[in-house]
Amino acid sequence: MSKRIAVxxxxxxxxxxxxxxxxxxxxxxxxxxxxxxxxxxxSQSYSIIYITEAAAVVLEKEIEKYRSExxxxxxxxxxxxxxxxxxxxxxxxxxxxAVGSDIFNx
Amino acid sequence: MAVKQVNPTRMELxxxxxxxxxxxxxxxxxxxxxxxxxxxxxxxxxxxxxLRMKVEEQIKAANANFxxxxxxxxxETLKAALLAPKQEVYVSTSYRNVMSxxxxxxxxxxxxxxxxxxxxxxxxxxxxxxxxxxxxLADILPDLIKLAEIEKSCQLMADEIEKTRRRVNALEHxxxxxxxxxxxxxxxxxxxxxxxxxxxxxxVKDMMxxxxxxx
Lengths: 106, 215
Description:
The complex is a heterodimer of chains A (106) and B (215).
Chain A: E1 2-9, H1 11-14, H2 17-20, E2 23-26, H3 33-42, E3 46-52, H4 53-58, H5 60-65, E4 73-77, H6 86-99
Parallel strand pairs in A: 1-2, 1-3, 3-4
Chain B: H1 10-71, H2 75-81, E1 89-98, E2 101-110, H3 128-213
C-alpha cells in the first residue's frame, strides 16, 4: 500500500520540500497545531512525517504517543533557524529506554 | 518474602514443578532474545546516529541554499514557483521481522520517473539559486527516507527490549523464586505429614504390643 510523506514545520524551513512532491503543512501559532498534527498522524495516509525540531518541542506529547506505534514514523529534522540537537536527543531517548543509560555519551 | 498460600498436596506439587520448569525455560529463551535484540539495536543505533548527523548537515546546507535563493527573488515569485509541485512521492512500506519486532522498510516511488520534475516552475522568472536549492534538497531525500526507516526501527526495538527486559526480570526475581519457595513449602509439609504418620503408627504398634503381651 502506498502512502505519502508529510512535512510539518514553520514555513521558512520546509517550503522547499513541496517541490519534491512531499505534502507540507505549516506550523502557525494562530492555529491549533496539536490538532493539525494529530490529524496528520491519524489520517493513515502518511507513513513518514518529518517535523522540524522547533515544532517538535511544542508537540512533544503527541509525538511521544506514536513512538511505539509501527506507523507513522515521526522524524525530527533541523529547521532553518539551526540545529537544536533535539533530533539527536530523540535517538538518545531510544538508547536510554533500551539500555538503561545513554552509553553514547559524547 | 511472603509466600502465597498453596494447598500442600501432591497434585499441587507436581503442578508447581511443571510451572517452574516452564518458567525456567521461558526465562532462558527471553534472556537470549533480549541479548540478541540488544546486539542488533546497538548496531542500528550507531548507524542511526551517524546517518542523522550526516542528514542534519545536509539539511543545513540545503536551507542555506534556500535562503540564498530567497534573497534574490521576490516572495511572490518564489511562492508561485513552488505552488504547484509536479512531482509526487509515494512510499510503500513493507515489514521485516527482526526478533519478533516488525521493523519498517520504506521504498519510495515517484509519480513520474523524470528526475527533472522536481522543478515545478519555468526557469524564466526564478533564479538559478532556487534550482540549486531544490536540487540539494532532492539529493537528501534518499538519505532522509533511510533515516526514517532506521530511526523508527530503533524506536520500535527500544520498546521491545524494554518489554523483554521487564519480562526477564519478572521471571528471574519474582516468578521463579516464588514457585521455588512454594515447592519447598509443600515438600516440607508433605515430609512432616509423613513423619507424623510414621510416629503415630509406631505409637499404635507399641500400644498393641502392650495390650497383647504386656510389654
